[in-house]
Amino acid sequence: MSAVTPPRLVFHVLAPSHPCAAVEAALKLKGLEYEKVELPAGPHPQEMEKIYGPGHATVPGLLVDDEPVHGSNAIFERLEQLAPEPSLYPDPLAEAVREAAGWGDDELQPLGRSLPWGALQFRPEAMGTFGGGGPLDPAGVDYALRFVRGSWKYHHITAVRLAEDLAGLPAKLDRVDRYVADGVLAGAAPNAADLQIGATLSVLLTVGDVRGLIEGRPAEQVARRWFEDRAGLIPAGAFPAGWVPEA
Known about the structure:
Strand content: 5-15%
Largest sheet: 4 strands, mixed
């Protein structure tokens, strides 16, 4: 009997995207070979829709031969079919993991965009640290401000939304802590929820104003256990006084 030829996997990403980091961790966990295509920020929504269809303008995306699979949780499920072991949805916690991964995608993941981009509006020079360098010079700040303003528009960020996201973050971190206490997260091996939630928390740890809300609690384990520290730090004090809840 001839061996089955594995499908060709083409993974479309944006370099700083935390959902892309979650999917890449899953691909590596499964030991699957893949080609990674980094799309340029700005025109990437049009390119994604060409490949994955109308309404699928965000990253990540995965082509399994000619089959388009869009979005991190959908990709997790498809990877599970391609390579069942090690499982992203281990028994007997499979449904609890799916619920947590869905919550992480719907409720927590957006904060990994709104809070860093929101803080950079107030401290644009810190954008240089995300490339592994130091704070930007004045010309770099001019560029960063244009980029940040475009990101606010693209992600529908407003000051009201930022204040609401910051106020709601402690309750979301409490939920992550409960998942850890229930054994859904931070087990011996990463599952889909670990990767989905941990990737977002790893981004939030770059925001000095919220780092103190995460450090020292079980939620911190979920980020640091499966993801290396990300480059970049937006100094505490970026957000106006009174916006950030007390730790």
